[in-house]
Description:
Elements: H1 3-17, E1 25-29, H2 34-38, E2 45-48, E3 66-72, E4 75-81, H3 92-95, H4 97-104, E5 109-118, E6 127-136, H5 157-166, E7 172-177, H6 186-194, E8 199-201, H7 205-213, E9 217-227, H8 238-259
Parallel strand pairs: 1-4, 1-5, 5-9, 6-7, 7-8
Antiparallel strand pairs: 2-3, 3-4, 5-8, 6-9
Amino acid sequence: MSPYENAQHAAEELRARTAGLDHDVAVVMGSGWLPAADRLGEPEFEVPLAELPGFSAPAVAGHGGTVRSLRLGDRRALVFCGRTHYYEGKGVEAVVHGVRTAAAAGVRALVLTNGCGGLVPEWTPGSPVVISDHINLTATSPLVGATFVDLTEVYSRRLRDLVRSVDPTLPEGVYVQVTGPHYETPAEIGMIRAVGGHLVGMSTALEAIAAREAGLEVLGLSIVTNHAAGTTGEPLHHEEVLEAGRLAADRMGALLADVLPQV
Ligand code: 8IG
């Protein structure tokens, strides 16, 4: 079965599990963003991803992701709580299956969120940043064959302007996706700075490419959860990363609740 047929099957099952409702927008909640998901309101439906075709079962029973269906103003959103990362080794097709499922379900816009390292010293842990563009350093693509998708405006000008009309203080930056799962060396962060990166993380770019192939309008939002390696002289701790996400959740939940009905 092709990845697109696989996504079509997942979308059909998802529709069956959400009373046949149409969805307008999908959101992928990245690390540190899950508390913000709870601030979007009570989901009307919540489906474990592992129960949809093409999503793998979680490594720990009961600890897999879910997809929520909820109403926001006069729109209906699919909220993916949890994503597959490339470093899990399931392949790039698994990484973008959620995005393709959302596209097959009929959404027109996709909000990709993540937690990441920041290369700009002023961006302290907990700072939200709007993604203006990306650099894909994974040496792979979700597309196979002669699929020459235009990436001149991956992150929609319209949606970026919309978010910044809601919160004009938000800075913009270029997101660099690496494979991980290790964090970078200071020398690698030096390289990422030299090529024009402001944010570094292990998601988003591959999903954004798949979304553009599907014709979705994309918005990318990062929370800087730590200064990138070597920028402060301190080592990186996963716990700090999680705590910064928790601190930013209120502000991000409010931002998403404002923006999504207009997306
Ligand atoms: I959260 O500093 C988070 N994810 N590659 N580097 C990379 N990924 C990250 C980082 C970081 N922080």
